[in-house]
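note to self — DONT lose this again. spent like an hour looking for the file last time. sequence + predicted structure for the chain T wanted, 164 res
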Amino acid sequence: MVPRFSRTEFRLPNATIAVWPFHWLAELKGALPSEVISETQFPKVFSWIGRFRKAVSAAKSQAPKPVRLKGADAVKQILAAEFAEAEESVDQSDPLGLSKGEELQVWPIDSGFKHKDRGRLVSLTSKEVVIAKPSKVGGKEIHVRTPRHGFRIARATADAAAKL
């Protein structure tokens, strides 16, 4: 069953999220030739796309308008914000054997691997690592969140500190 949406419900179930490629293709001229795929041949799919369009339109009409910020203003807002998570934890069963508060380096393994973020371990789960480090502007503590997949995590070494 395809879910129905009210104007106040914006959290979309997975089945609805799966419709976006069809919505996207239907918007591209010539991407779906009518002799191959059309509303006549696939009425339920096109009905699904229509419901998705209505849900997106309703969400857009009720959402606040985006505010454009210059870089310096964005930095001020970020540094003035509170952390979303009150307290985070480190998975003690993680095979890396890291402890909360340890100094780490985190970097991507595919590109940008010459830059390594260094900071104190705040959180470690099977999906994410979070380190705390001072911001470049104002020195306020920020949290740098990276996924576990595609990133290397290592204890910081003394020679790494000298290079930074």
